[in-house]
Amino acid sequence: MALKKKGEQSSEDSKKRKRVGFAKIDAGIEANECIKVFLVSSAEEVGAENSLCVNPVDLNQFFDEEGKIYGFKDLKIKIWLSSISFLAYADITFESTSDGGKGITDLKPKLQNIFGESLLDNREEFLQSFTTERDYVGSVVSSGEVICSETLNTHNDKPNTSDSGSYTIEVIRMELRSMPIALLYSRLMPLAFLFIDGSSPIDISDPRWEIYLVIKKMIDFSGETNICALGFATVYRFYRYPESWRLRISQILVLPAYQGQGHGRRLLESINTVSISKNIYDVTAEEPSDYLKHVRDCVDTMRLLSFEPTTPALEPIVSQLKQTNLSKRISKFRLNLPSALIESARDKLKINKKQFLRCWDALIYLSLDQGDHKSMENYRNCVLDRMRTDVLGKDVGTVGKRLIEVPNNYDHEFTFVVFRSRAFEGSDGLEKVANGEDQASQEEQFIRLVDERLKEIAGVASKVSMHRRSCAA
Ligand SMILES: CC(=O)SCCNC(=O)CCNC(=O)[C@H](O)C(C)(C)COP(=O)(O)OP(=O)(O)OC[C@H]1O[C@@H](n2cnc3c(N)ncnc32)[C@H](O)[C@@H]1OP(=O)(O)O
């Protein structure tokens, strides 16, 4: 073996060194960019150009390292999700693979993290499932309890007046621990992961879980009844001391193709029906999305409007808003909260206090003349004032200790934090008021918050007015 002296380089060595550069490290590709999910209801739709492509909340979360997939060139993943059996199949294509410094992502376990057992390996088996599993949902829900049933006309989705061209929408309630429904839920769970922000699996062995399925029943040309699932809600029953129960909506999802057709409302109304029939204490929702809040506010505001004690409770506050000038900061809303109505709405309609207060805003708004500048200005000031109290604490105006309501998953009504605001305590230990600049920016934030809240209230009020007009017509 020839030894090379230090410092001595052959011309061959120096050529080699020139050729050894720093290879570019694989930047990877985001899962959101290369994965497309299609919701299909027949074998013909699998691979078809016009199949329904749906938008999951965030696929990156299922992949490591900033949601990226490494080692593939021109990677394309098409996931076909059957709305008949809720089985899935992934078509994966790529030009080549190479380890560019970050390895080659093992796709199968990653996709199984989302789809679990419902991800099939065999394309043929998946295609056949549209036939073999055609009655799957129907057979599972056959033992469930029908909570609501509505027959609609195919042409205009209005309650049916003739027998032809009709279908039935039902909401079915089942306990999750029984076997066939537990298996169906395990196929629905990936949908919750895909379409509900921050969704996590639930422990179906806990007997307090139940599921509400909204299904469509239709008789086909051969006279057979086809049943498919359009959405679902999982609900947990909590014990409430000393001897009652509360229902908490954990996940609610209407399949993308069927959203905005009243199925979310039907699920919520069915949960309300059950909570009343079983004399549950109240109903809450776990971290509701903004849109779910909107739908829920519409549903509960409508219910409160037809609740007898509501109108007399509204009258005094509405007449006050019409007459008084409330431009100065006073807590009229807090002072005038209708505690008897809050309690009877909880008792009879199972609307929890936090939810009641959201609807109360909409009910007052609906009772005011939108063209009357004074009452609308008063209303705005009251909402602003209530928000200040909510954010700054129950004890606005006193320095030092403050009491703040903080959200939690279990019960929004009963969590408070007491703290000593730094803005009110100087380094010399003397209590001071916040400086002018802090107060101005705080005020700006409140104005922004109040504008957003007023927009939400107006959205609910307009939907409720439309719904009332169409019911009256
Ligand atoms: C706790 C959690 O799970 S949070 C996550 C919630 N789920 C998701 O985000 C998943 C994706 N989204 C969905 O699945 C659905 O959109 C849901 C479940 C949020 C709502 O279900 P949908 O079927 O889409 O709602 P639905 O058709 O019943 O309501 C639609 C409209 O009718 C209105 N409406 C419903 N009931 C009434 C009523 N009684 N009176 C007046 N209006 C009503 C709603 O306000 C809404 O109005 P809009 O036109 O302003 O949007």
List the helices and strands and how they pair.
Blueprint: H1 11-19, E1 29-30, H2 31-34, E2 35-40, E3 52-54, H3 64-67, E4 68-69, E5 72-73, E6 76-82, E7 88-93, E8 96-97, H4 107-115, E9 119-120, H5 123-132, H6 136-141, E10 145-153, E11 166-175, H7 179-195, E12 209-219, E13 225-240, E14 244-254, H8 263-277, E15 283-285, H9 290-305, H10 310-323, H11 332-335, H12 339-349, H13 353-367, H14 373-392, E16 401-405, E17 416-420, H15 436-472
Parallel strand pairs: 2-6, 7-9, 14-15
Antiparallel strand pairs: 1-4, 2-3, 5-8, 6-7, 10-11, 11-12, 12-13, 13-14, 16-17
Helix pairs in contact: 8-9, 9-13, 9-15, 10-14, 13-15, 14-15
Q: What is the overall shape?
A: globular
Beta-strand residue percentage: 15-25%
Helix content: 40-55%
Instruction: Find the count of extended strands (DSSP E, 2+ residues).
Output: 17
Label the structural class: alpha+beta
Q: Report the end-to-end length measured between terminal Cα atoms.
A: 100 Å
Main sheet characteristics:
6 strands, mixed
Protein name: histone acetyltransferase
Domain N-acetyltransferase: 229-271
Pfam families: Acetyltransf_1, Hat1_N
EC number: 2.3.1.48
